[in-house]
Amino acid sequence: MSPHPPLDLTGTWTYRLDPDGIGEAEHWASAPLADPGTLTLPSSLGAQGIGDPVTVDTPWTGGIVDQSFFTDERYAPYRQGEDVSIPFWLQPQVYYRGAAWYQRRLEIPEGWDGSGIDLMLERVHWESTVWIDGHRRGSQDSLTTAHRHDLGRLAPGMHLLTIRVDNRTVIDVGPNSHAISDHTQGNWNGIIGEIALHERPEIRLGQVRVLPDVAARRARVRIDIASGTAVAREGRLRLTARRADSLPDAAGAPVIGPIEAAFEVDHGEDLGSRGLLGGGTHLDIDLDLGADAALWDEFTPALYALEVQLSARTGDREHTDTARVLFGLREVRTKGTRILLNDRPIFVRGSLECCVFPLTGYPPTELEPWRRIMRIARAHGLNLLRMHSWCPPEAAFVAADEAGMYLQVEGPIWANQGAAVGEGRPVDAYLHEETRRILRAYGNHPSFLMMAHGNEPGGRDAEFLAAWVRLWQTQDPRRLYTTGAGWPGVPENDFDNIPQPRAHRWGEGLASRMNAQPPHTLATYDEDVASRDRPIVSHEIGQWCVHPDLEEVAQYTGLMRPRNFGVFADLLRESGMLDQAADFLHASGRLQTLAYKEDIEAALRTEGFGGFHLLGLTDFPGQGTALVGVLNPFWEEKGYVSPEEFSRFCAPTVPLALLPRRIWAAETEQEFSVRIAHYGWAALEQGEVRWSLRGDDDAVLAQGAFHDASQVPLGNSTVLGPATIPAGLVGEATHLRLVVTVLEAGERIGENDWDVWIHPDAPADETPGVRTATDPAEAAQAAARGESVLLEIPAEAIGNDISLGFTPVFWNTAWTRGQAPHTLGLLHDPAHPLFAQFPTAGATDWQWWAPLRGARPMLLDGLPREIRPTVQVIDTWFEARRLGVLFEARIGKGRILVTSLNLDGGDGADERLAARQLRRSVLAYMASPDFAPQVEVSVEELASVLR
User: Fold this and answer.
1) Membrane-crossing residues (predicted)?
2) Which of 307, 579, 671, 677 is least crowded, fewest Cβ atoms below 10 Å from its Cβ?
3) How many CB atoms lie within 10 A of CB 819?
4) pLDDT tier at 212, thresholds 50, 70, 90
């Protein structure tokens, strides 16, 4: 008997909410629901406007670190009744937490009589319980795979199907797990994806696993056969495979097979009491793919579609079943600290995917949305997505297979903040159940390259998760396993996914490398690599924030709304800076891009390193709003960096200039070397590496080539040079770009560039007609007499607690409890005459490192609103204060320019060059007719900036 096509159950259903959990006791499933509403499935309650208004008492799932929303007076207008704007995460228009009952009548067709029937619910959030005609058929609680309910044998005709879905916490997997938390997808109630009845053959295929053998160009197909009560002594299997990808040769590729295999089952003597399996029947069949079989990886994602047909006879009845499996010929392993795919080294260039889908509040189960995400990620040079504490639907795996995108999949667990693993709680068993389900459902996908139990665990994590790794390494060796994203790093891991090797770590503040060390491009994580005998993939690097894009609000046309952005816009408006929001976005975005570039390049410079996971390519809307992405939650650009620019420093082949400094003395020649991070398809056999030094007009001032670059192996061990840049190329302060290009057989395969600045190495002499002072009272008196005064205020004289660093905010100031820095960089007009001798582009760049070193911003709310600082500091969006490090005004008959920047630069020669050049430019401006401030301030107003 052949199974009939599935019976689709999508469409209109009735529903009834059960917030008090009384439905089972009152036997709601035994009859049509009383006073029902109607909705469409697949979907969620919230996506169809069903639920309660959001209030300050909404029972959210997810931790709230910053509790000030509930007490701070400035948030009082946003806590009123049902007109609430929460600043923690994207806010659903309605919210429901509890049980909901879904019901419909269905008709079993003629011909299904006598067959077992399964109800397929592709994704449920969270627990589903099913009744058919009032008879309870069981419950399931997977957050990661389909719920399949055995409905038994149903007679043809009409039946009443009832499903109860409960989105309250079933297992304590941690309140911030992205599988359940309101921080990201939201705690939705519903059913998405396929909803259908499947006829279940009495004798059927169970699990079909494909174990690739790259060396032999074949795959071992491991087939389990299951049955109900039917008895059969023998049967047959038929296997065929074909290329299934979009490569040019796939369409014409021959069909592989068919391969046919017969099997017999020894049932023993008691045939009547045992089914086909007895203790289980399985076959291992080798599928020869041919000597020219294509391998799967990020460059050639060759896919094979395998069809397995089963036939068996019981008496006069034929039982058939078919399974279709997508797989790729690939093997992943480690060698020392390297990750090898098909025996070639790969470097993980990953980003997190945290289940952020604002329009629906739940992940798509269709293929095209996932294809779009993979295309965008690949365009930015990434080759992996880490599914943070959740597992996506089948469509994501297929899209990743097609795109050659690697996936790190995780169980739906972030057992921290009160939850824990390894202590005998229900989550321990649940982790193993979910792991088994994930591997069974998605394990054949070649994109499924890595797996962690979940994120950043608490409890007896090391001992428990070490055993988890050992078990699943044995059960399914087709991927690499690590205990958890973040920790613990244990010897059992195939790789360690740890947070130590990154440019800015939790709690480092102004002591982090980019804040504490003058600009250079030599930093590596060599010590971290040397400390381990297995690969390191650094955990959640970056976390560099950008100012909110207020224009983004218009894109939120579905369930989730950025009411938090409304709060942030109001704070800007109150400070008189709402008109600057777009400028704040662009300037902070350029600083964010700079920081990600250095973070990524440091990882690429480290020989023997395994890779990194960005946090992230896209914004994270939860945890107090973490605007860490160069893309918004819709995977769309924000306007300050393109995929083409980003992929210059994040790609399979990236040249890396090794610069001891970024600020050069005009009178001194400079030397640099180049490391080639080359993780392409093959080693370079006809390589060329060229460099050029270019002006803002792209004119070449100097150029050269490395003559030892023709042979470049895979990896990042190749270092070329040094090359020498002569002194005296320019006679004044100049911004230049060092460009390095890698070619193979004349074709460019990688190019990267670095901003450098050349300044004269001479002190900034005092300028006639400009008085300098460090005491505000002295400066005010001199200005009142008609003088032009430069007031340099030392940081210790400023009484605010705003921490100003070179880098922007890390993650966000609310979730990190105010970790430094507190600001998002500088905004200024590069065409302002003050910068005539200090080339700048309107945002923080490396030449600002020394002037910012040790500086503190001034609070300007005591000054007239008409004063906009010449060099403005962009504040965190939670405060939106008027901040500046340089402004000008009139006092009495005179003029004053006030700065809290460091215009001396400190002890190091490299530091002094940029700071003193800025001082020189400031003094020249003040001595010119251009220095003509229009707004007058009083002595008292001037003194207000010191607090």
Assistant:
1) none
2) 579
3) 19
4) very high
Q: What is the mean pLDDT of residues 332-356?
A: 98
pLDDT tens-digit map of 909-943: 667 899 999 999 999 999 999 999 999 999 999 99
Domain 667-759 has CATH 3.40.50.2020: no
The confidence band for 232, taking pLDDT boundaries of 50, 70 and 90, is confident
Q: Rounded to whole angstroms, how far apart are CA atoms 422 and 550? A: 44
Distance between CA 882 and CA 823 in Å, rounded? 11
Domain 203-327: which CATH number of 2.60.40.10, 2.115.10.20, 2.20.25.90, 3.90.700.10: 2.60.40.10
pTM: 0.96
CB 729 within 8 A of CB 702: yes
C-alpha distances out from residue 300 to 187, 305, 329, Å: 38, 16, 11
What pLDDT digit, counting tens, does each position of 482-492 carry? Answer: 999 999 999 99
Distance of alpha carbon 727 from alpha carbon 793, whole angstroms:
35
C-alpha count within 13 angstroms, C-beta hemisphere, residue 806 = 24
Cis peptide before 616 (omega within 30 of 0): yes
**What is residue 233's predicted lDDT score, i.e. its pLDDT?**
74
Question: Between these two residues, 31 and 279, which has the higher pLDDT value?
Answer: 31
Alpha-carbon span 121 to 144, nearest angstrom:
12
**Best CA proximity match to 397, nearest among 363, 447, 432, 360:** 447
The strand pair at 611-615 and 348-353 is best described as parallel
Specify the CATH superfamily of domain 7-199.
Galactose-binding domain-like (2.60.120.260)
